Amino acid sequence: MSMHHSDQTHRNLLARIPQVTGRALTDWFREVDAGPGLARFEERVNWLRYEFDLPHSYACAIVHEHDLRRAARAFA
């Protein structure tokens, strides 16, 4: 998993996603789950960017948080 910004920046991006995109973070997680099933982080980021015209930083934050939450569920 590749992320190029700090934890604080990540949290700030996540907080702004609903306002900037008009969609809740959980909606974006559903899009990632329903997407083409790409395995690599950057592939999923690029798919979100081009499919939904998202800025790179927001797409990275969505995919990173999706991966974190999926990993947390696997260990629960």
Tell me about this structure:
The protein is an all-alpha fold and 76 residues long. It has helices spanning 7-21, 25-34, 41-52, 56-75. The radius of gyration is 12 Å and the shape is globular.
Number of E-state strands: 0
Q: Note the run of SSEs as H and E.
A: HHHH
Kindly name the structural category: mainly alpha
The largest β sheet comes out as: none
Strand content: under 5%
From the N-terminal CA to the C-terminal CA, the straight-line distance is 20 Å
Helix amount: over 70%
- Distinct helical segment count: 4
Radius of gyration: 12 Å
> Mean pLDDT across all residues, rounded?
91
Q: Which shape, going by the Cα principal axes? A: globular
- What ranges have pLDDT less than 50 throughout 5 or more consecutive residues? none
Looking at this protein, list some descriptive labels.
mainly alpha; globular
Layout of helices and strands:
Layout: H1 7-21, H2 25-34, H3 41-52, H4 56-75
Helix pairs in contact: 1-4, 3-4
Short summary:
Helix content is about 75%, strand content about 0%.
